[in-house]
Write a structure and sequence with these properties.
- By secondary structure, the chain is an all-alpha fold.
- The chain is built from two helices and no strands.
- It is rod-shaped.
């Protein structure tokens, strides 16, 4: 039988690694692209959830601020009423 030389064997190995479309490196490159795309989608979903959470917290803060203002107004009214009743 004919035995391939080292250069021929090396060329076949390199060709298997670098072949476009179905070579080892092309497959790994596609895998990395898929992972990058999945991570991008995950980041987008997280950013949307974070924006929704921010809106919720802003609404809660506004309601609490309104409540505090109302309680302060009641406190002022009661303080005035109490001081007027003692006069």
């Amino acid at each position: 039988g004919t035995t391939d030389g080292v250069a021929t064997s090396l060329a076949r190995t390199i060709e298997g690694l670098t072949r476009a479309g179905d070579g080892t490196l092309a497959i790994r490159d596609q895998g990395f692209d898929d992972q990058i795309e999945a991570l991008g989608l995950s980041i987008d979903r997280f950013e949307r959830r974070l924006a929704q959470r921010e809106e919720l917290l802003i609404e809660r803060f506004a309601r609490l601020e309104t409540l505090i203002n109302g309680l302060q107004a009641q406190g002022s009214f009661l303080a005035t009423a109490f001081s007027n009743s003692r006069s």
